[in-house]
Amino acid sequence: MYHRVILKLSGESLGKKSSKTGIDKVSLYNVAKEIKTTLDVIKVQLGIVIGAGNILRGKDVDFIERTTADYMGMLATVINALALQSALEDVGLVTRVMTAIEMPKIAEPYIRRRAIRHLEKGRIVIFAGGTGNPYFTTDTTAALRAVELKAEVLLKATQVDGVYTDDPLKNVHAKKYKTLTFIEAINKKLKIMDTTAFTLCMDNNLPVIVFNLYKKGNLLKVLKGSSDVGTIIK
Predict the structure, then answer these.
(1) What pairing do the DSSP bridges indicate for beta strands 176-177 and 163-164?
(2) pLDDT tens digits for 90-149?
(3) Residue 146's domain is classified under what CATH number?
(4) Most buried by CB count within 10 Å: which residue of 72, 103, 141, 216?
(5) How many domains does the chain have?
(6) What domain range includes position 205?
């Protein structure tokens, strides 16, 4: 069982089921309720890093200069963080949003010691604004925050129950990996996280568990240390 974890959520997890865009009430509250149900059973210090794929990813906007587009994506993560904060507090959880880019009117600046204190007090900390720098993904942000805050594991939430040899939604013959090493994941070019995030985890001995958050009960099983859920990369 884990004591402190970082959960990486994609922006699409908050979007409409059909298009994965925007912020959908049902999707948003499904995530919030799954977290609430889990934390009612098990006490764990939880930090969340949220992406922005439902709104805007800088690298996908080829008509705007990349640095500017990346900052736009960072701002989109703040929108998602505030939405998630609202939903989590609506179901009875205490949260804080911390941003890598200072915007004191709406969130706290990211300060490592303050983040640790929030976690120790049982508050969910939602990290927004990426690393505060262009050219870094929110996967890298999740790995960085996990290492900085001495989390025991990085949980990567996806729509499938682990890592496969191919896209299981398109290839019925795709086989699931139960365990992988970071080198294998990099060499096989498995697009679970970017190479920078993998390398950061590998260099700091931080395991990554890829699992399906959207199957009820999976988050609880992962936090209890079940080997039957997802794929572990270490």
Answers:
(1) antiparallel
(2) 999 999 999 999 999 999 999 999 999 999 999 999 999 999 999 999 999 999 999 999
(3) 3.40.1160.10
(4) 141
(5) 1
(6) 4-233
